[in-house]
Write a structure and sequence with these properties.
elongated; 812 residues; 7-stranded mixed beta sheet; mainly beta
């Protein structure tokens, strides 16, 4: 935990806004490499003929496939530097947000590329030289490289099973046949090293037969492995690898919104990294990957949109992760065998493969058994190369999978008050192209009573919602569109829509005027709308003209209507807005602030720092000191570390947080929660001390957090998860002593519709999935709850719940 000062935190916390100019590297220019490579094949041999762009005219079928964002398995994209480029088409489609047009064990977002070598046997010709190595792999070559042509492997997992017991051809399984083939192609005919590599790979075959498939094997300690890796290093010293190209396409018909392709993980020493852009864009961007290893990219506007490329040197055993990896978080530069790498790999395969999402039942226990690519991975522990024989087995052993999923039928003993509204953004419906619905749960019966998919308007990825002072409407943002929708809360009927700007994220109302504030995740402002969203009243900028675009995400409004705080993901700071004046100041945060909560008295804001694994406390008053330092003294700002129990090399020693998203503080200030996507845990913090006091279990994609009133007094926190069809109910202070250290999960409720649920369309896939923004009716927070209309539901609120801050003066 650290104190924040303006001077110490501004340094080094500006985002890296590198724009890569695509150039030919010297080696590629020299040999005059042409665009494209041979069509995918099941062999590891080179292209048999020199190719040029003229050889790759699109047929009608190819054109149709390309327009749908797919790359036919026999088609080489005609525009590239070197062999076949990888293509990511960014899309609104669930599970295919970064679509390669290929599939590896259920994910469409993982590309595998083979780094080429210029053929030493081929002299400089008339404009084109032959290369050895295919670039982006497709078809049977892709499947064999990743062992994805053996689907039974992900189903036959058994802890400690040896490679010999798996019944596979070890030579092919570890890609050692590819090592030999590559050596024969790049080394001069008659070179003694060809025979030596043949002998060493076959010796390594024999060694590996008795090694557990789920455990890394040290090649440094292996007699044959150490010699083989030394020989590979010697060969590469005189025959370097050439880059591979990755293209990113953003536009219709796959998406109507601007996105980014921001490097999150890359091998140490890779040129042009970290690849990033000054803001979200439409069109095409290109980057060259110059080192073997793991690269990962994400969208800053929609952070669960992920793509990855494994760039392989075919001369080495397995598929390369690279010796060391840089991670765009906390300045990490770690050996590729570090625990943090596999925490991220775990989440990548869960997020990008819908078959890996957790599907609970309300009536029966189930088992969650996610699949990972059963590929051999060449990694390093910092001392030398480690070969993971089977990534699928390794991940299941490391993360204690398969995992039992008890039936989700736990309801709180004490009812809540009113309704809980949340977005099930991933649900697919029969009557519309775009995903998602607004879902209503009765907090007294714990039943899902309504889903609004709005097929008539093709509502596009609903993300967050709020209600008006009279509780008559639901305001709903469309995150992958431009629209804010207004629905009748009781009937679900659409009242109106209004275009507010790119990728609207969160919406809240002012407590004094009932006007709406809508943050533009794809823009640089918050839009203020008239009550009922009848018109736009004002644009409130949260960045300056001389800055990159802010891309604010989940803002929060103060109950006294003085302040609004926006987390600016592209600026790595917060904007504290004087609501009435429409002016702002920037304050420092951790890395990639994404969501905001405030204490009950509206004296300080809490920002969840998505890439920093921290919570930033910021005093709202310009010279205020509302945050509590570790020594108990008041400070303007503070970083609360979520990694006190986490070591990036060795893993967790207790509860921990990572990739934190939504954050909220209970209306009575008894406690707060932050949802962590990486660790699938809820961090519990005390706003009176600004310290973490515990962690609670959550589900994959742990995301939305908000508080609602509990019948008889106190508060429940309601928590959604993007990749599980459950809603968790947390009692933040069960014994009512104001200390949240005893916070507990008291409910787990299925988010699917049932036979009694009112619906306007038929769900056809991902039922209950995509839990995102969440709120309650009545709104329970200071400034809003006082104005809640009197009715049979709201009359259940206690005097203290009606007056969370002033209850001592008002309630007798």
């Amino acid at each position: 935990m650290h104190s924040l000062t303006r001077s110490t935190l501004r340094a080094g916390r500006r985002p890296l806004l590198c724009t890569l100019a695509v150039t030919c590297v010297v080696s590629m220019s020299t040999v005059g490499l042409a665009a494209g490579a041979s069509a995918a094949s099941g062999t590891s041999g080179p292209a048999n003929t020199t190719t040029t762009t003229a050889d790759h005219q699109m047929s009608g079928d190819h054109m149709a496939a390309a327009s749908n964002g797919k790359v036919p398995i026999d088609f080489d994209a005609p525009i590239a530097i070197g062999p076949r480029p990888a293509l990511f088409t960014l899309s609104d489609n669930q599970g295919s947000w970064y679509d390669t047009g290929t599939e590896i064990v259920g994910t469409h977002s993982l590309a595998v590329a083979e780094m080429p070598t210029a053929d030493p046997q081929d002299g400089l010709g008339a404009g084109a030289a032959r290369v050895i190595g295919d670039g982006f792999l497709t078809g049977s070559k892709l499947l064999s490289t990743m062992n994805a042509d053996m689907p039974h492997l992900t189903q036959d997992y058994a802890k400690g099973k040896t490679l010999g017991q798996m019944g596979v051809n070890i030579d092919q399984f570890l890609n050692l046949d590819m090592t030999r083939s590559t050596a024969r192609q790049i080394l001069p005919k008659g070179d003694a090293r060809i025979g030596q590599i043949d002998t060493l790979t076959r010796q390594l075959d024999a060694e590996m037969a008795n090694q557990p498939a789920d455990q890394a094997y040290s090649l440094t300690a292996s007699p044959s492995g150490a010699k083989l890796m030394a020989m590979v290093k010697d060969i590469r010293a005189s025959m370097p690898l050439l880059p591979v190209t990755v293209n990113f396409n953003v536009g219709e018909p796959m998406t109507g919104q601007a996105h980014t392709a921001t490097a999150l993980v890359w091998p140490e020493g890779a040129d042009g990294m970290p690849f990033d852009q000054a803001g979200a864009w439409k069109g095409s961007r290109t980057v060259q990957l110059t080192k073997p290893g793991l690269y990962a990219f994400g969208c800053k506007v929609h952070p669960y949109m992920l793509g990855a490329v494994v760039v392989d040197d075919p001369l080495t055993p397995g598929v390369d992760f690279g010796p060391k990896l840089k991670i765009k978080s906390r300045g990490m530069d770690v050996p590729s065998y570090a625990d943090i790498v596999y925490q991220l790999v775990n989440k990548f395969f869960v997020i990008t493969n819908p078959k890996n999402w957790q599907t609970y039942s309300a009536t029966e226990d189930r088992t969650w058994d996610p699949s990972f690519a059963p590929a051999p991975i060449l990694t390093s522990d910092g001392k030398g190369p480690q070969l993971i024989p089977d990534l699928d087995s390794f991940m299941k052993t490391k993360f204690h999978l398969p995992k039992p999923l008890p039936k989700a039928d736990m309801v709180p003993a004490t009812p809540g008050i009113g309704q809980v509204w949340f977005d099930t953004q991933m649900e697919k419906y029969a009557g519309k192209d775009k995903s998602g619905a607004a879902t209503e749960m009765n907090a007294q019966t714990w039943k899902i009573e309504r889903k609004i998919a709005a097929p008539d308007i093709d509502m596009n990825n609903p993300h967050n919602m709020w209600t008006d002072r009279a509780e008559k409407v639901i305001y709903q943002t469309e995150w992958f569109g431009h629209m804010l929708d207004v629905f009748d809360r009781k009937t679900g009927a659409l009242i109106r829509r209004i275009d507010v700007g790119p990728s609207p994220t969160h919406v809240m109302t002012r407590t004094d005027t009932d006007q709406l504030h809508v943050a533009l995740g794809g823009g640089g402002a918050v839009m203020e709308l008239a009550p009922g969203a009848t018109k736009i009243d004002r644009r409130i900028d949260v960045g300056s003209p001389d800055e990159p675009i802010a891309h604010p995400h989940a803002h929060w409004m103060s109950g006294d209507a003085k302040w609004m705080a926006t987390p600016n993901v592209n600026l790595y700071n917060a904007s504290i807005v004087d609501i009435k004046k429409g002016t702002f100041r920037h304050d420092v945060t951790g890395e990639f602030p994404i969501a905001t909560g405030m204490d009950a008295a509206s004296t300080k804001a809490y920002m969840a720092d998505f890439l920093g694994a921290t919570i930033t406390c910021v005093s709202l008053a310009p010279k205020g000191k509302a945050c509590v330092g570790d020594d108990g003294q008041k400070e303007h700002g503070k970083l609360i570390d979520l990694w006190d129990n986490y070591n990036m090399m060795d893993g967790p020693t207790g509860g921990w947080g990572g990739l934190p998203i939504q954050i909220a503080v209970s209306p009575d200030n008894s406690g707060g929660l932050v949802a962590n996507t990486l660790s699938s845990q809820l961090g519990v913090f005390d706003p009176k001390t600004d310290k973490i006091v515990g962690y609670l279990p959550c589900d994959p994609g742990c995301h939305g957090v908000n508080f609602g009133a509990k019948k008889g007094g106190g508060y429940y926190a309601y928590v959604t998860s993007k990749f599980a069809n459950v809603l968790n109910v947390i009692d933040i202070d069960p014994n009512g002593d104001g200390n949240p250290s005893d916070a507990a999960v008291v409910g787990r409720i299925i988010t699917d519709a049932d036979a009694a649920t009112a619906v306007d369309d038929q769900v056809v896939d991902y039922a209950g999935m995509g839990g995102q923004g969440i709120m309650t009716v009545p709104l329970a927070y200071e400034g809003w709850v006082e104005h809640a209309p009197k009715n049979a539901i709201n009359n259940q609120l206690t005097c203290r719940q009606r007056n969370p801050i002033k209850f001592q003066k008002i309630c007798k």
